[in-house]
Amino acid sequence: MKLYGIPNCNTVKKARSWLESHGVAYEFHDFKKQGIDAATLESWLTQIPWEKLVNRAGMTWRNLDEASKAAVTDHATAIRLMMDKSSVIKRPVLVRDGRVFCLGFDETTYGKLL
Predict the structure, then answer these.
(1) What domains, with CATH codes, occur in the chain?
(2) Given its phi and psi angles, is residue 42 left (phi above 0), alpha (psi -120 to 50 degrees) or beta?
(3) Active site residue 102
């Protein structure tokens, strides 16, 4: 199991805490230190729409200029943005057996792990 996110994100902290308190082993992938590659994003986008993966409610998106926001119209442009500004990816992304198990943190969904 692999958890993708940013260590100082409150939602990521909640997810990590939940996993640890329930004894669920996972590997943490820090977007800030490790980045994200196009192949991983392509895989995720076969499972969930880019409109859900790009966090348009977050500060990174809100701080983009209008031209940059308007330029995100499909998978390719979303991937370019997410690779350039990984903080725009909705987090955490929990991946299990190569599949996106959960986007964001939801105790009920995480509870299915046990």
Answers:
(1) 2-111 (3.40.30.10)
(2) alpha
(3) no
